[in-house]
Amino acid sequence: MTLPEVENLLLKLERGVLEVTLNRPESRNAMSLAMVADLNAVFDAMADERAIRVVILRGAGGHFCAGADLKQMMAGGMKPPVPGEIDPIVGFSRSFGSLLRKVTKLPAVVIAICEGAVLGGGFGFACVSDIAFAHVDAKFGLPETTRGLPPAQIAPFVVERIGLTQARKLCLTGAQFRGLEAQRLGIVHEAFSSEEELQTKLAETLKQILNCAPNANAVTKEIILNVAHQDMEFVLDDAAQKFAACVRGTEAPEGITAFMQKRAPKWAGGN
C-alpha cells in the first residue's frame, strides 16, 4: 500500500509491520489538529488493508502522548462558532473519537508502547490497542477534570477497557499512576524496565502474531468487538457465517495442511 504524506508522524513499514511514531517530542507528543489529521489519514488508508498485519504505536523522545494540545485549543477555540459552521472545538473533539474508533477497528493487530507521559488522549490510545506494553515508570492518567474539562471522547473507551467501576474512579479523580498499576488495572498487558527488555517482549509478541493467519486475525477481531455492541444471538450467527467463510477461504486449508504436515504455514513469520 501507499502510505499518506504526514508531517507529525514517523512511518516505517517492513514485512507487514507498520511502526507509527508520534513525532512532536517538544510537546511530549501532545495531539495537535495536524497530528490528529495525520493519524486519521494513515488509519483511513489502512481500513481494509490486510497486507499490514501489525501496527506498533509509539511516541518519540521518551513520551507516548501527553493528551490534547491545550495551548493550541485555547489559542483558537474560544471564539464562538460562525453561524452555519461546525464549532471547531466540537469538530476537534469528535475527530479524536473517530480516530480512536478507527484504531479499534483496524484489521491489523495494534500494539501500544506506553512510556513517559500516557495522559488523556495517550491513555485513550492505550485503551484501544489490542496489546499494550508499559514502562514501569510511565505516568498514566486522565487529568482532564483537574483542568475543567471532561475526558469526553476517551471515557467510553476506558469503560470498555477496564469496566465501569474502575473507569469512574480514574475519570473522576484525575489520579495519576505508574506502569505496574496500569498493568494491574488491565490497561496494559505487560510492563518493562528497559529498552532491551521491551525489545525481547516485543519480538516474542510479533512472532506469535505473525504465526497467525492475517485474515483469521482480522475476522477474530470483528467477532470480539461485536460482543459488547450487538445482541449475543446476532454475534453468534455472524460468527458462524465468518467461520464458514474462513473454512472455504485460502488460509484454513493451508493452516490445517501445515499442521498435519508438521510445518509452518506460508504466512508464518511475516513471509
UniProtKB/TrEMBL annotation:
Biological processes per GO annotation: isoprenoid catabolic process
CDD domains (UniProt xref): crotonase-like
MF terms (GO), sorted A to Z: catalytic activity
Protein name, as recorded: Enoyl-CoA hydratase
Superkingdom of origin organism: Bacteria
Family matches, as InterPro entries: ClpP/crotonase-like_dom_sf, Enoyl-CoA_hydra/iso, Enoyl-CoA_hydra_C, Enoyl-CoA_Hydratase/Isomerase
Organism: Stenotrophobium rhamnosiphilum
Homology family: Belongs to the enoyl-CoA hydratase/isomerase family.
